[in-house]
Specification:
Layout: H1 2-6, E1 12-15, H2 22-33, E2 37-41, H3 44-57, E3 65-68, E4 79-83, H4 84-87, H5 90-93, E5 103-107, H6 115-123, E6 128-133, E7 161-169, H7 172-178, E8 193-201
Parallel strand pairs: 1-6, 2-4, 2-5, 3-4, 5-6
Antiparallel strand pairs: 7-8
Length: 204
């Protein structure tokens, strides 16, 4: 991380499995480079755990930690622990200067493409946004993978209908397929159980 940042990298990623110290690594990194730090998470329990980690790894900062949540908002601390739900509100977000934070640590960074996360990430101009996520590897070395992408709208064939999905569920079968545990050996698009509106019909 140090070498990457010193070389001019504009973003970073820490990917480790649970309980291997991702949060501590990010705190030690922020401590080394100083400045203001934003720790961003989607639930308050994670923020509380992060505060404990900050106090252990960076005890000098104990009187300079503030929360931005639905119930508490402190804007003038060196370390800010913020829930994405609270910080993404316009009247809250704009109370911060876009360049206020030197390091932004994004917990569970696989959420970062959602509209609320993107709104916050695009607003701030830190020296380094630092994503943190877990990597779950299988014993056979393969990776479970979910990809979100746009595809061309299909044209229904004979005896087919095109459905605009309004709701979908994830079930055990999709977990098995997604992890390559089915004899077919291939994953299918998620959301096999779905309901919605028929928008086109193929020829009979």
């Amino acid at each position: 991380m140090r070498a990457s940042r010193n070389a001019g990298s504009k973003k970073g990623l820490i990917s480790l499995t649970t309980a291997l110290g991702k949060t501590f690594i990010s705190i030690f990194h922020a401590k080394e480079y100083g400045g203001n730090v934003l720790f961003l998470a989607h639930i308050v329990d994670i923020l509380n755990q992060a505060e404990n980690s900050f106090l252990l790894a960076w005890p000098e900062i104990k009187n300079n930690i503030g929360y931005v949540t639905g119930e508490e908002k402190v804007f003038n601390k060196q370390v800010t622990l913020a829930s994405i739900q609270a910080l993404s509100r316009v009247h809250t977000l704009e109370l911060f200067d876009p360049k206020y934070f030197d390091t932004i640590k994004i917990d569970e960074t696989h959420h970062a493409t959602s509209p609320t996360y993107s709104k916050v990430i695009n607003y701030f101009k830190p020296k380094l946004p630092l994503g943190v996520t877990g990597t779950h590897e299988r014993h056979d070395g393969k990776q479970a993978h979910i990809e979100l992408r746009e595809v061309e709208l299909p044209v229904p064939g004979p005896d087919q209908i095109l459905v605009r999905v309004k709701a979908a569920s994830l079930n055990r079968g999709e977990f098995i397929l997604g992890h390559g545990l089915h004899k077919s050996g291939s994953a299918k698009p998620i959301g096999m159980e779905a309901s919605g509106e028929a928008v086109a019909c193929g020829n009979a």
